[in-house]
Specification:
Elements: H1 2-100, E1 109-113, E2 118-122, E3 170-171, E4 174-175
Antiparallel strand pairs: 1-2, 3-4
Length: 185
């Protein structure tokens, strides 16, 4: 009886050992599969990091190029706008002595061109009678010139190698280029 009980107990333990060894084999297979998945994902992550770094470098280069172009355009605009301010001050200086001497005809005056509603500068004295009188001083706002009072047109760079047609632009419906300069907008 003891022997049969021991044999039955050995049989139960043997069956449990077989089940446990099958579970161990299945778990080892699952561990191997998971380790392979981790390796594959590590390789993918490494490749993605390399691609991300390449894209980041190319984007930084592109942004730097765009910023350089922007700075160059701003520098050119500031130079052109500074030159325009100098020209406007020269025009004002030319107008001022003629008006203080009592002369009724100014060498430069503006009239409105009805075909495209832009002010034009003309040197024809006979057209002065039809030109509207300006009682207010015109204030021009340039976007690339600082808004504070630190801007000085004498510190502006003048680029003589830039074609004059680059500086032709409209501001508040008024042409900033005179016909006498030979520049057509």
């Amino acid at each position: 009886m003891v022997v049969s009980t021991l044999k039955a107990e050995i049989k139960v333990l043997q069956a449990q050992l077989d089940r446990d060894s099958l579970q161990l084999t299945a778990c080892q297979q699952r561990i191997i599969e998971l380790e392979e998945n981790v390796k594959n994902k590590d390789v993918c992550v490494t490749e993605l990091k390399e691609k991300l770094e390449d894209v980041k470098i190319s984007q930084e280069d592109e942004i730097k190029s765009i910023e350089d172009k922007y700075q160059a355009v701003m520098k050119i605009n500031q130079g052109l706008e500074g030159k325009l301010l100098q020209l406007y001050s020269q025009v004002d200086e030319l107008r001022r002595p003629k008006q203080t001497k009592g002369s009724s005809v100014s060498p430069l005056h503006e009239y409105i061109d009805s075909s495209n509603n832009r002010n034009r500068t003309e040197s024809d004295p006979s057209a002065m009678e039809t030109a509207p009188k300006q009682t207010e001083q015109t204030v021009y706002k340039f976007h690339s010139v600082p808004a504070n009072d630190t801007f000085n047109p004498s510190h502006t760079e003048i680029h003589n190698d830039i074609p004059h047609s680059v500086g032709a632009r409209e501001l508040d419906g008024a042409s900033l280029v005179s016909k006498e300069s030979g520049i057509e907008p």
